[in-house]
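Input/output pair, single chain:
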Amino acid sequence: MTPAQFTDAITIISPKEAKRAAKMAEKAAKKSPLTPRQKQVALVGAYGCFALCAVAVLIGIVILVVGH
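Output:
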């Protein structure tokens, strides 16, 4: 009896292929589609959103404490 073949079976790759794939993944992870200026704007925007959320939480706490 022959073993069944599955079309979605895990592919076995050689160590050389695995090393090459890992190198390509590392290189792709380092690339960023954003320019340095866009990164700076995104960082400032993120801090702004965090500050806005903190203010909203503080206002909610003040309303709860003072409102009662």
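The mean pLDDT is 87. The CA atoms of residues 48 and 54 lie 10 Å apart.
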